[in-house]
Every structure is written in C-alpha cells, then in structure tokens.
Amino acid sequence: MRCRMCGFETGNETELCEECAGKASQAKDMSRRKFLGWGAVTVGGLIGVGYLGSALRMLYPTNVGNGSSAPLQNIGPVAAFPVGHYILKTYTGEGFEDGVWVMNQGSNQFIALDFHCTHLQCPVQWFQSLEKFLCPCHGSQYNKLGQHIAGPAPRGLFHHAVAVKNGQVMLGGQTS
Ligand code: FES
C-alpha cells in the first residue's frame, strides 16, 4: 500500500509509512501541549483540539502579520541547526504555542515557517528526501521555502521572524 502522506510504499497494509507515522505522532503531541496550555474546554479528538488555536487565528486574521512586534525567543545556538535541515521548534506567544519549522540556510541566514497548513490548519510535515512540506489532511504541498506548489491551500506557509544574535537563534511571531 502507498503511504497517504508521502506516496512511498509502506511495505504493509498501514496507511502511513514508518517515517510519516512518526512525524504525525510528533505533530499530535505538540498540538496536545498547546491545548493543555490554554486550559480550553474539551472538544472531540486530539487532532481537532490541536487545531483550535489555528482556527482562532483564521477567525481573527488581524493577528497575522503582527509577529514582527512579538518578542524574540532564544531557541538555541546556531551550531544546533545543521545547514539545510528543518527542525521543528515551539514559539510561545501570549497565551498560545506555535509549531515552527526552522532551517539554517548557512552564513547565519535562517528561515522559519509556521507548521500550520494554510488550507485548514493541519500541521505540515517536512520530508528531507523530497525537499517538501506535505499536509496529511488534504494533500497540500509546499517547497523548501514554504511556497505553495500543490493541493487546495490558498497560499504558502506563513513566515516567522528569525534572527541570529550572539551566536543564538532568536525566533519571533508570524510576519507574513
Ligand atoms: S489542511 Fe492542509 S490541505 Fe487541507
């Protein structure tokens, strides 16, 4: 059977290959932490709960783009980010946490992309071998720079502010 996320053979009758299943599980854990942090009311299912913050952001789009004024947070030394590989980090804003894919592009240049698909906010996963972000929900795809290349998403992934200060990577809120 072919994997529902990456399209490779799973080698068995499961819908996801081993790599995709692991990444989907990691995304669910992050979504659950976000929910617990808010202390929000219970809604059915961990995945549905994890998308609550994103749904609110869709309802109040004025929040998008205010990230440049949000405080930068230290997410570790530059050396902890191998060049050319995305690492999933958590940005903690006022009353919410956000998953952010961060990549060292070399020469102290970083790119930080929000991990929510711009279609219906499912957490996208990075596939190094494909050099793409894939959304497990409805198949949207994004290239290495977060630009939309396939599927129903209306645009590319949102960017977060990111900078290097004194050898430390500093992550901020959404900028675009
Ligand atoms: S939520 Fe990603 S394609 Fe629908």
Question: Any descriptors?
Answer:
single chain; about 180 residues; alpha+beta; Rieske Iron-sulfur Protein; 4-stranded antiparallel beta sheet; 3-stranded antiparallel beta sheet; 3 helices; about 20% helix; globular; binds FE2/S2 (inorganic) cluster
Your description of this structure?
The chain is α+β, with helices and mostly antiparallel strands. Helix content is 19%, strand content 31%. It has helices spanning 18-38, 46-50, 52-59; strands at 73-77, 86-93, 96-106, 109-114, 125-127, 132-134, 141-142, 148-150, 160-165, 168-174. The chain has a four-stranded antiparallel beta sheet. Strands 1-10-9 form a three-stranded antiparallel beta sheet, with no helix packed on it. The longest helix has 21 residues, at 18-38. The protein is globular. The structure holds FE2/S2 (inorganic) cluster. Residues 117, 119-120, 122, 135, 137-140, 151-153 line the site of FE2/S2 (inorganic) cluster (FES).
